[in-house]
Amino acid sequence: MDRLTDISYVKGVLSKHGFTFSKALGQNFLINPSVCPKMAELCGCGENTGAIEIGPGAGVLTNELAKKAYKVVAVELDKRLLPVLSETLCDHDNIKVISGDAMKLDLKRLIEEEFGNGDVVVCANLPYYITSPMIMKLLEEKLPISSLTVMVQKEAADRICAQPGTRESGAISAAVHYYSSPELLFKVSKGSFLPAPKVDSAVIKLNILKEPPVSLNDEKSFFRVVKAAFSQRRKTLSNSLSSGLSMPKSSAAELLAGAGIPANARAEEMTMEQFAKIADALTQA
Fold first, then answer.
1. Is 0.90 surpassed by the pTM of this model?
2. What is residue 209's predicted lDDT score, i.e. its pLDDT?
3. pLDDT value at position 207?
């Protein structure tokens, strides 16, 4: 068994460096020996592929990625973990740990400096509190990556991967489907972590699309419409758009009519194509 999935070893290293878990940083380290090898395999790592990891923790996933990718760059926010990672990852010479906040880093520049024009994937066990912001940052910046494989709360995974036009869909579902083709890879029980969280997790993979699935006159209008549409899920689309876009209800109704959509429709019923029609109608208005 790999030493990094040995609970006693991990606890020993953490204790040696005086590390204690931070609830504020959502720190839950993977200890299930089967999860990280599976993530490293399914994320698309290979001898010609570079990998970026966000929040390496004790380095369990980093260790597996380094066995497959030619280079791994891990970004860690918690400076207390730097000496821990120096010890746990000492067997690898193809890992670079960067101390910093991934939400604030210029990731496009980082990729250019560390990987050049090579193929790059992102693979991470994301802290729950930054799941949506981090995923959207990685997608919206249109980074030169081929895929994004992350572990998130099971409920978040279902919402992210939900097909627009279905009851489970939300604003992030539409956004994710605009930039990628998402798939739920496998579930991970809460007992796979140290300390154990209160809910189960799931690993999802977002395969980056070369072109969006819908044609738009204005991309910003599309995301304004999606955000407004889901701002009040229990209300009709007409009421949600009126409130979210700060326009009279009559104007919102006209907007929907122009897109050929009933005023009493709801956001979760809208497909990507219908959201695109509303966005184009808004742009023209």
1. yes
2. 97
3. 98
Give the pLDDT confidence score for residue 79 in this predicted structure.
Answer: 96
Q: What is the pLDDT of residue 1?
A: 46
267 closest CA partner among 242, 235, 220: 235
DSSP single-letter state for residue 162: P
Tokens of 278: 């509303």
CA distances from 181 to 42, 176, 213 (A): 15, 8, 9
Asked whether the beta carbons of 94 and 72 are under 8 A apart, the reply is: yes
Which residue stretches of the chain have pLDDT < 70? 1
Secondary element (H or E) of residue 178:
helix 171-179
Those residues with Cβ within 8 angstroms of residue 90's Cβ, 6 or more apart along the chain or in another chain: none
Look at residue 138 in the predicted model and tell me its pLDDT: 96
3-state secondary structure of 124: strand
Q: Is 53 helix (H, G, I), strand (E, B) or coil?
A: strand
Question: Residue 8: what residue type?
Answer: S
Domains of the chain: residue spans and CATH:
3-208 (3.40.50.150), 219-284 (1.10.8.100)
**Whole-angstrom Cα Rg for the chain:** 21
Query: Contact 152/26 with Cβ under 8 angstroms?
Result: no
* CA dist., res. 219 & res. 284, Å (int): 13
Q: CB–CB of 191/30 below 8 Å?
A: no
**Nearest to 60, CA basis, from 129, 104, 3:** 3
Q: Judging by DSSP bridges, how do beta strands 201-208 and 180-188 pair with one another?
A: antiparallel
Strand pairing partners for 202?
A: 152, 187
Amino acid at 266: R
Give the strand pairing for 193-194 and 29-30: antiparallel
